[in-house]
Amino acid sequence: MKKKGKLALIDLSRSEDGFEQLITQESFLSYLDEETVSPGGGANSLMVPLTLIPGAVSKGAVCLDGTPPGYHLHRGFGSGANSWVIHLEGGGWCNNIRTCVFRKTTRRGSSKFMEKQLNFTGILSNKPAENPDFYNWNRVRVRYCDGASFAGEGHDEVNQLYFRGQRIWSAVMEELMSKGMQNAKQALLSGCSAGGLASILHCDEFKALFPETTEVKCLSDAGLFLDALNVAGGRTLRNMYEGVVTLQGVEKNLPSSCTSQKDPTSCFFPENLVSNVKTPMFLLNAAYDAWQVDQSLIPSIADPHGLWHECKVDRLRCNSSQIKFFQDFRNQMLDAVKTFSGSNQNGLFINSCFAHCQSELQVTWYENDSPRVGNKAVAASVGNWFFNWNTVKAIDCPYPCDKTCYDSILK
Questions:
Q1: What span, in angstroms and rounded, lies between the C-alpha atoms of 330 and 305?
Q2: Which of 76, 142, 201, 370 could cross-link with 377 by S-S, CB 3.0 to 4.6 Å?
Q3: What is the domain-level CATH number for residue 253?
Q4: Which member of 27, 30, 193, 220 is catalytic?
């Protein structure tokens, strides 16, 4: 990542292993998210090894290609020895056979291709100067290899695809409980992007694992995906989600509180879920989520003449109607969380940035010049909420008022 003033330039549209050739009108959204937690690191990096769960295979809890799921665990110490952060990895979705077949040849669909160790930063850091409230907790990064936010249940024999996200979730939780999580005094389920959606879907299930005496909460980072109109008036993300839900058998694992009233695709959208989550939850989101702007609001298929290109790569080149389009999206996000925000147990941090996944990158989680709403950084806000030190309902003023952002410039 290189900085230019207060900007972090991240090419979130980067495709991998020639995936550019697979981007089509109906399937481009299954492209792989930028890896926000670097697999490499310097001398002071905390490199945590991958642990596979071989026993999961006999339970059918497997990645898209049938390989065992995995996670990275760094043990807690001192006052945090009996506290746990479980962080669910993100990485888009696959919504049809072709994209799922491709995905199983990557780390997002097979443990054969996963990095053998990952650098723990941000909410996973073990340094108090980088992660003041959770640095000495047991910290886990759960690898994402099912393509449906840990929620699918199905099998395609012809193409040898296993849609077993829900079983992966259960197998990983069973494994971690056996590794000491059953003794947790405090537990936080977090996740970024598709993992942020998964943390919403599984929040109450996570709470149910523990006795009432355990303090259990959930954090969704960049998981507030909206059923929004794109610049051409279409519903890019709804079309994508419909494929995911149908292909991967997600419906049976969606909350009945939603599916009894709405269609299954609607119940994969967080805006229709968050108000019914009973466990305390914190929503961390950029008001102009960079991934949604690039892939849902202004996908290339909806802008064939490139009228939005200059605006996408440089906000200063946006005209007034384009800025209004972004503000309407922000207003839709704020409307979506009104009921959720009304609960005292829930927390909120919506900053007016063009960013995505702010809990994983150190620079956006907790540094001297990290993004702020008021005078509070992301990490401090999450900590204040988790430990009940303060009520946190932080909503930024509209763009371009926030000068603390590390925006993702989409190329």
A1: 25
A2: 370
A3: 3.40.50.1820
A4: 193
